[in-house]
Amino acid sequence: MDVMSELTDQRDALKRTKGHLHDVDGHLSTSKMFLSLMSRRIQGNQAMVWGLAIVLFIILVFLIYLKLQKLMAFFR
User: Fold this and answer.
1) What does pLDDT average to over the chain?
2) The dihedral of CA 62, 67, 72, 74: what is its sign?
3) Is 1 helix (H, G, I), strand (E, B) or coil?
4) What is the C-alpha to C-alpha distance for residues 57 and 65, in angstroms, rounded to an integer?
5) What H or E segment, with its residue span, contains residue 9?
6) Is 76 in a helix, a strand, or coil?
7) What are the TM regions of this chain, as residue ranges (predicted)?
8) DSSP string, 18-50
9) What is the pTM (predicted TM-score) of this model?
10) pLDDT at 1
11) Distance (Å, rounded) from C-alpha 67 to C-alpha 61?
């Protein structure tokens, strides 16, 4: 009887452990989803920063071109 009682206790402990492992697996899946979402947001933000940098560079080049045109007209 003692052996049967001990085996029952061990089976219950294994079932609880299995339940905890399923909970942990669920939390890991949720964490993976959040990390993927954060990664996509970071990539989107980086793309916007690069796009803004390119637009600002184009504006800067255009302004320099206009100033040089004005300067050339002044010396003529």
Assistant:
1) 95
2) positive
3) coil
4) 12
5) helix 2-75
6) coil
7) 47-66
8) HHHHHHHHHHHHHHHHHHHHHHHHHHHHHHHHH
9) 0.63
10) 86
11) 10
